[in-house]
């Protein structure tokens, strides 16, 4: 039985472990909180810091393979483990490229992958020298996550919102649709693509609000999305599962926004809606089993459960009973004890053959189910 570790014990680790129960694998988790969402589902839990060299190296040296649920891990330790024969999914070199927005954009340019035009800035003063590039989006090179580290700079009045650190200034694209394409690739270079999904973002939080799968796009545009996503994944030269996020503009041109080198929020619906979920697929890749069937069983939508504004503390799920009465709805609560505004606390998957029904129920659930907290005494 292979021993496989996960760096990080949040909701992605939790859902990976739920899928692992179907396979002959011994699971290990490293996280600094022994009450994290994944802690009680693994065979072996280690309390430690995924950013610390010694913690990661000590955790990994007795394993057959390691994967990640977040990019902010100690890649030096992973490189040492890889050199000693332990498989890392994805390879440490990929994590280093993708987690740095500057290196990621340069990777697209070097591999002739369509992406929005960009300039690298080192300081806020340097940003002020590129007023002619506006409107644009300023993304901090390292440390941004879930909408943090991104600022829209439309006019000179917005310049002060930029980052006084190495960053990417991306020319703004007129976005008609935001799409996610999940691709799995194994050691042999064989690939499997999930149907692309439409992502609808919360404009205030810059977080995924809800999504519909499959994406409603012309066939030729979907072909472009698949071809570009495959080009990204093949150029990374690493087995694993990747979520490629793309923009489609008014002309039907497709641009890569960014890539996640792991299971991803945009693939959560695959648990119920596809024959092989993204979590099942990653285990197949790591255990060297045949790739799964990515076809839809039925179209789906996802609503993210985010902590409501104005509430921090022990989580309370208002409207849960009402949502559980809706047919073909599946609630996933991540087991985080504390809520705070905008924190990912769970998701709800809706299944229906009718797209109008998916959108209707997504909006209904958004207005019914809220994550609040007990009033403080």
Q: Can you put this structure into words, describing what you see?
A:
The protein has helices spanning 11-20, 53-60, 75-83, 92-99, 101-110, 124-127, 219-236, 270-273, 278-286, 320-324, 355-368; strands spanning 2-7, 25-31, 44-47, 65-68, 87-89, 118-121, 136-140, 150-153, 167-171, 175-185, 191-193, 197-202, 207-213, 240-249, 254-260, 300-306, 313-318, 329-333, 338-339, 344-351, 370-373. The chain is of the alpha+beta class and 377 residues long. It folds into three domains: 2-89, 3-Layer(aba) Sandwich (Rossmann fold); 117-171, ATP-grasp fold, A domain (Dna Ligase, domain 1, 2-Layer Sandwich); 175-373, ATP-grasp fold, B domain (D-amino Acid Aminotransferase, Chain A, domain 1). The strands form four sheets. Strands 10, 11, 12, 13, 14, 15, 16, 18 and 20 form a nine-stranded antiparallel beta sheet that branches. Strands 3-2-1-4-5 form a five-stranded parallel beta sheet, with helices on both faces. The longest helix is centred in the middle third of the chain and has 18 residues, at 219-236. The chain is globular, with a radius of gyration of 20 Å.
